[in-house]
Amino acid sequence: MRTATAIVALLALVAPGSQSPNVRVFTAHFAPGGPRYEYVAFTVLPGAETVTVSYSYSGDNGSSVIDLGLFEPGPLTIGTPAFRGYSGGSQRTITVGRNTASPGYRTGPLPAGLWHVMLGMYKVAPGGVDVEIRINETNEPAATETAAAPKGAAVPTTAPPAPKWYSGALHLHTTHSDGALTPAALADAARDAGYDFIAITDHNTTTHTREPLPASPVHIVGEEVTTPGGHANVWGLPKGAWIDFRVSPAEPGAAETIDGLVDAAHQAGALFAISHPFDNCSGCSWEQAVPSKLDGLEIWNGPKGPQGPAIAMWDRLLRAGRRVTAIGASDWHRPPVPIGAAAVRVLATQLTDVAILDGIRQHRVIVMRDVRTAPPAVEARCGSAEAGVGDSLTCRAGEELSVHVSMPELADGNAEFIWNAARMTTRAIGRGTTFTMPATAGYVRVRFYTPDGRTVAITNPVYVETH
């Protein structure tokens, strides 16, 4: 395993005015151009019940931006189980303890030994940055937090239920990273907006799972893996699981390390999808290598509409034979941005986290402008064989391929048929319209848009195979 970066040796002092030797202060100056992650070591004594970390730094008005994380005793290698939590720049003081912890941090025993504060050097002023860290240990137990409510079991049925399109949000943030609402309040807002399921994807943490959530909407445990060279959402992690993020794209072996993170997600039963691959904030665009086993790609982030460069990237992957599922999401943090734009519809046999993830895994996803509009119907045929969104359709070479679409809520709109990334034709939808062509190997997807050109839906492909 590769060590993330070197540990910084700092001066520890008893805090001025403190009566306790357990309150310590660490100070240091960091010049620009140093490691992306710096680590400050401190010792936790036996019997500690809580550890509080506070930090401040010069230029905290935007000229410098320093993130915060914490590791208990153990290795600092990628994927280490010593990771205790992360809050980025959203909190200046955090506490971890046996029974309680700040949002973004795990509860549990505090092992004695050498701990590390992680400083994420997101931005360092040209003249450098002065950082002060205060550590306070207590031996007084804190109140026990309420455990998360167990998920309701699926109702058993005597026959497999018919698949149905469910409306979902796959990119949401809470107070456990940089969101405005608690997990429960976020779930309430999502349900009121019309979502059937949500994935909470706080930055570099899954600690929202320790808070109780309402039974509706269905909850998928997620994480936005926030690397210095792009973000990725992971959906379907077990409670307490975590995918590392400390991978800079320019460091040796970065591509292999990213592939290792995807493998770790898959081993946990989760999916890995690149978020907003082209963005305007520092470190938000995907500068890492595209993982060899990538599951999904966000082509529509927020209410403005689909992102052309992201769609072009998706088409390049599809043309290379990579069956990567396109998704759209609101990436919601707080009002006044609408929580329901954009969204997905996932075709699943039942409304459970397992069934929804399986639908995404099978590419049965339509990206939608909003949360409530009914999705279009898409049916592809070759002779007696038929397929829908995400499916494979086997045709004889040269046989007529027909793709029929309908969307009653957009009868006055248009359907644009795309074959292997090329725009083939645009048809008025009306009560339904059909596009035909000689079958060859490739994929067909459809964009639905209003008379004034606003995209309403983008389907994932039907994959055509020939023999």
Q: Could you explain the architecture of this structure?
A:
This protein is mainly beta and 467 residues long. It folds into three domains: 7-138, Jelly Rolls, CATH 2.60.120; 160-374, TIM Barrel, CATH 3.20.20.140; 376-467, Immunoglobulins (Immunoglobulin-like, Sandwich), CATH 2.60.40.10. 10% of the residues lie in helices and 39% in strands. It has four helices and 29 strands. The chain has helices at residues 183-193, 254-267, 308-319, 353-361; strands at 7-8, 11-14, 23-30, 37-44, 50-57, 65-71, 83-88, 93-97, 113-123, 129-138, 164-172, 197-200, 218-227, 230-235, 271-274, 296-301, 325-329, 343-348, 365-368, 377-382, 385-387, 392-395, 400-406, 414-419, 422-428, 433-438, 442-449, 455-459, 462-466. The strands form four sheets. The protein has a 15-stranded mixed sheet that branches. Strands 1-4-9-6-7 form a five-stranded mixed sheet, with no helix packed on it. Helix 1 (183-193) links the parallel strand 11 (164-172) and strand 12 (197-200). The chain is elongated, with a radius of gyration of 24 Å. The chain starts with 6 loop residues before the first strand and ends with a strand. Mean pLDDT is 93; it is low at 1-20 and 149-157.
